[in-house]
Design goal:
Layout lengths: L1 E4 L5 H14 L4 E8 L4 H7 L9 E8 L2 H10 L2 E2 L5 H6 L3 H4 L5 E5 L3 E3 L3 H5 L11 E5 L9 E9 H6 L6 H8 L1 E5 L2 E5 L4 H11 L4 E3 L6 E2 L23 E3 L5 H6 L2 H21 L1
Parallel strand pairs: 1-2, 1-5, 2-3, 4-10, 7-11, 12-13
Antiparallel strand pairs: 5-8, 6-13, 7-8, 9-10
Helix pairs in contact: 8-9
Pfam family, one: Glyco_transf_8
InterPro entries: Glyco_trans_8, Nucleotide-diphossugar_trans, XXLT1
GO molecular function, one term: xylosyl alpha-1,3-xylosyltransferase activity
Length: about 280
C-alpha cells in the first residue's frame, strides 16, 4: 500500500487510516509505503502504529517526496499549481516514475477508514484484464456525473512504466483543465489536481481503466454520494463498508459532532438491507 502524507496537518488522518488497516487486516504481512512531503517525516514517524504485532508482520517504508521532481513532470505537461497542497495531489500521478522499485500499489489518501480486510481490496488486482492498468472510481458507476475519485486507486505501476502512462497527461490537461497563457506559453490549471489528469486519460483511453466497486470509496461529500446511496444506485444489496472516504469535511470536528456515528449507523442499515435481501 502507498499513502501520500505530504501536506501539513494530515498526520491525525493518517494515524486513523493506518490503525484501521492494522485493525481490519488478517494478512500475515503488510508493507506500507508512506510518501512524506517537506518536513512531514518526523511528524509521520510519531504516529505510526507499533510494528510489533502478535499476528501481523508490519513494515513501514517512509519515502521522501522531492517537490522539484514533481514540478519537473508538471512543467513537461504544461500544468501549474495554484495552491501549495496541490503538489502532493499531483504526486500521485507520477509515483510510478518516482519509485521504480514498486510494481503494484494500492494508493490511498489519508482521509480514509477501512471497514473491511484490505486483502479483499488487493484481490481487485486479479480483476484487471488485458491493458487495464488503473482501477479507480470513475463516472461509469455514477450516472450523469462526470467525475473520478483518486482517493483509492489500484496502480499497476510496472505496466504504467512499460506503456509510458504519463504521456497521456498532457492531452488530458489540454481537454479537462483550464487554459491560461504566461509569457507566450500555454499552461493549464487543474481545479481538482491529479483527478483532472486521471479523469482525462479515462475519457480518452478508457481501456486502461477498470472501475472500482463503489463500496471501496464511500464518499462523505454530499454533492456526490453522501449517505443516501440510492440517489445514485438502484439497489444497495451488494454494498458493504469497504472504505469510508471522509472528504469534504474536517474529520476531527465532524467526528466530535456525531457525523461519523451517523455514517456508521447508515452503513449498518445498508448492511442489514443487504443481508435481508440475500436471505429473503
Amino acid at each position: 500500500m502507498c499513502v501520500v502524507a505530504g501536506m501539513e496537518g494530515v498526520e491525525t488522518e493518517a494515524e486513523v487510516l493506518l490503525k484501521s488497516i492494522v485493525l481490519k487486516s488478517h494478512l500475515y504481512s503488510i508493507e506500507i509505503h508512506i510518501i512524506c512531503g517537506d518536513g512531514s517525516r518526523p511528524r509521520v514517524e510519531k504516529i505510526l502504529p507499533p510494528q510489533h504485532h502478535p499476528y501481523i508482520n508490519i513494515k513501514y517504508d517512509l519515502r521522501n517526496l522531492n517537490k522539484n521532481d514533481i514540478m519537473q513532470e508538471l512543467d513537461r505537461i504544461h500544468v501549474i499549481t495554484s495552491k501549495p497542497g496541490d503538489i502532493y495531489k499531483f504526486a500521485k500521478a507520477f509515483l510510478h516514475l518516482l519509485f521504480p522499485d514498486i510494481d503494484k500499489c494500492i494508493l490511498l489518501d489519508t482521509d480514509l477508514i477501512f471497514g473491511t480486510d484490505p486483502a479483499y481490496l488487493w484481490n481487485e488486482f486479479k480483476s484487471q484484464h488485458d491493458q487495464e492498468t488503473v482501477t479507480m472510481k470513475v463516472n461509469q458507476d455514477m450516472p450523469n456525473q462526470d467525475y473520478a475519485n483518486s482517493g483509492v486507486m489500484l496502480l499497476n505501476m510496472k505496466q504504467m512504466r512499460e506503456i509510458h502512462f504519463e504521456n497521456n497527461y498532457k492531452p488530458a490537461a489540454t481537454e479537462y483543465c483550464s487554459q491560461l497563457v504566461d509569457q507566450g506559453r500555454e499552461y493549464y490549471t487543474c481545479n481538482v489536481g491529479d483527478q483532472n489528469l486521471f479523469y482525462g486519460v479515462f475519457r480518452n483511453k478508457g481501456h486502461l481503466f477498470r472501475s472500482l466497486p463503489p463500496s471501496w470509496t464511500l464518499e462523505f461529500c454530499y454533492d456526490f454520494l453522501g449517505f443516501t446511496f440510492d440517489r445514485y444506485y438502484s439497489s444497495t444489496n451488494n454494498m458493504f463498508f469497504g472504505i469510508a472516504h471522509l472528504n469534504c469535511l474536517n474529520f476531527i470536528s465532524h467526528r466530535e459532532n456525531g457525523a461519523f456515528l451517523d455514517f456508521v449507523e447508515e452503513m449498518n442499515s445498508v448492511r442489514e438491507e443487504s443481508e435481508t435481501g440475500q436471505t429473503g
